[in-house]
Design a protein that fits this description.
The model has no long low-confidence stretch (mean pLDDT 93). Helix 1 packs across helix 2. The protein is built from four helices and nine strands; from the N terminus they run E-E-H-H-E-E-E-E-H-E-H-E-E. Strands 1, 2, 3, 4, 5, 6, 7, 8 and 9 form a nine-stranded mixed sheet that branches.
């Protein structure tokens, strides 16, 4: 994967960087194939390496179109890939964000640290409206959003399909944004 230069963002414990083709096997091993880890995400669980390669192709197209796209989350000291985050642009000044981590990194503040870094990236890209969608039952993720100053704007009934839940059709979704009225 050849992307325009992106200087990785470093936090006290993490490095956020652009995806590489060589990440495919690690993505499926670390987080994208585990049903618990992807239960509340908006994309289907990766069942084969081909699914991770499809994600990398999607990433390539997002990076070609926008100033930033999906980002890999690495633990700074070990260099181990532990999850992903990034920005999904709707318009040049409006984007969504989200995050997924391997479950051995849950509960240690890594999601909050990664999200705070993405907020900083969004500001440097000129994003004026940053939002995140979250399943109402995903309490830990809701707390991460609130800890990073996202505010619950509304709960939209039956709006989003969460493909890894055993549920029929669209589910309710919590819409969070930075500041009032950003969604």
């Amino acid at each position: 994967m050849t992307l325009r230069p992106f200087v990785p963002v470093v936090t006290p414990r993490l490095r956020l960087r652009a995806p590489r083709d060589s990440d495919a096997a690690t993505i499926i091993e670390r987080y994208s194939s585990d049903p618990d880890e992807v239960r509340y995400v908006g994309w289907p669980r990766h069942e084969t390496l081909r699914d991770s390669h499809a994600f990398l192709e999607f990433s390539r197209s997002e990076w070609a179109r926008w100033p930033v796209g999906p980002l890999m989350i690495e633990e700074l000291t070990s260099g181990k890939l532990i999850g992903s985050t990034g920005l999904a642009f709707d318009t040049p000044d409006r984007a969504a964000t989200g995050y997924v981590l391997g479950k051995d990194y849950w509960g240690y503040g890594y999601a909050s640290e990664a999200l705070a870094a993405v907020v900083g990236i969004a500001r440097t890209c000129g994003i004026r409206q940053l939002y995140a969608l979250c399943h109402p039952n995903h309490g830990p993720s809701r707390r991460v959003l609130e800890r990073c100053s996202f505010q619950l704007a509304e709960i939209r009934p039956r709006q989003v399909v969460f493909p890894n839940l055993d549920a029929d059709g669209p589910q309710d979704v919590c819409c969070y944004g930075l500041g009032a009225g950003v969604i």
